[in-house]
Request: fold
Amino acid sequence: MTPPATSPDRLRPISAATPSTVSDATRAAPPLLQVRRLTRHFGGLIAVSDLDFDLQRSEILALIGPNGAGKSTTFNMIAGTLAPSAGEILLEGESVGTYPPHRLAALGVMRTFQHNCLFPGMSLRENVLTGMHGALQRPLWKVMLALRAQREAEARAWQYADELLEFVGLADQRDQPVATLSFGQGRLLETARALAGRPKLILFDEPAAGLTPSECERMALILRQIARQGTGVLLIEHDMPFLLPLADQVVVLNFGQCIARGTADEIRADPEVIEAYLGSRHGAADPAKNIPASTGSANVHPPSADSVDNRPAVASTVSGATSGAADA
Reply:
């Protein structure tokens, strides 16, 4: 199955010259996500202090910084697994800082994890379907009677799961158990499962960690294509050659405070960022390497517009996480 693309653009190699996915009209619109004076204390430890940033639709925003900088704490507050001590989180203008993960998932906030959180005894298709559980819930009597509407809803869900697996390059393995996947393939499957929730915003926690160079390349192409379709992407990442050519905006944290924000070029040239985190290797004197051109992902397309319009509105199971003071 090769679903048609939603636009003439196909997945193409990402480089420092790749134009932003954020149009001028989108930049002028109200932000998808607004973080205002976000703060989190753990006893006397201030993990995050007065953090502010905006994320637009179709934008890729990266949180970077050394270990313990407050990145994962920020992620967990946005994902609803950790309550802010102060400040506000707004999704499309709605204050969501006190919402639990399942409520955020229903609003279109999905996440993946630093370590793959999959169901190893299930097939790839079944794992993707878990991201649609909210839309597939029906009274037991309707399921037992197998009414036409129930059968049609399930058929659409299976079809969309197949399209998502093709989008991430796992269609040929759709009926295999997850236990047969490599770590990198598990990363791609988590991405497909998050997309099954019809997200407005996806949080990726170190998506390139543990991936081979070719898998990193494919993940970068997928993230850019997700953003092209209007989804906001917020990610934590330590792999600068992967991240800097990809991100539209970078926010740098150090000891819980924002020390810089801007484009990748601006961040690379910032003396405070170079000293605190990047070092000279990724600073202005030695820019991050571009991700190499792909030979295997040119024929990968996102699910068709018709599939997107007809797929069920769902909440994803990937929104829960264990919170804590430890930070990536």
Notes: The first strand starts at residue 33 and ends at 42.
